[in-house]
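User: My collaborator sent over this chain with a note saying "see what the structure looks like." That's all I know about it. Can you take a look?
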Amino acid sequence: MKKLLLHICCGPCATSVIERLADDYDLTGFFFNPNIHPEEEYTRRLDAAREVCSRLNVPYITGDYNPDQFFEAVRGLEDEPENGARCKVCYRLRFAETAGLAKERGFDIFASTLTLGSMKKAAVINPIGFEEAEKAGIEFLDGDWKKKDGFKRSCELSHEYGIYRQNYCGCTFSIWDDKAK
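Assistant: Without extra context I'll predict from the sequence alone. Here is the result:
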């Protein structure tokens, strides 16, 4: 069975993705999200991810929380709309870290829960995963996890587990976008 490092963006997204992958892979979760703002929100999402991993018996690794890393990466893209160039830089930042850690720790493959989100486009996210996998010399498992009722199932499991379900992407810019709407 291949060892898979699963980048987890949040607990709700982890639920149904872990459920789908658990029979086919030896899973370890990886929570690395320097984009999440403010820190209290980061902590709530980390706690939810830990709860999901605990309930589903998946070990997890917590990456460093350094929001300055995110702000430096997206400098000049602050006014981009949600799902624009800033988001692509953010995906790349998180996938580069995940691919590097997967390679360093002897995983065979990595994936991400990011495409479960209803506003997240697999056609944008998955190519970035493949690019970062190639750079790191590791395999990437793509998916559009919202399909086949993946998003619906994540909502059911989040409710069942009583875990926090956020109402914005995570970065400070997505809060602004949400308020503007």
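A starting point for your reply to your collaborator: The chain has a mean pLDDT of 94.
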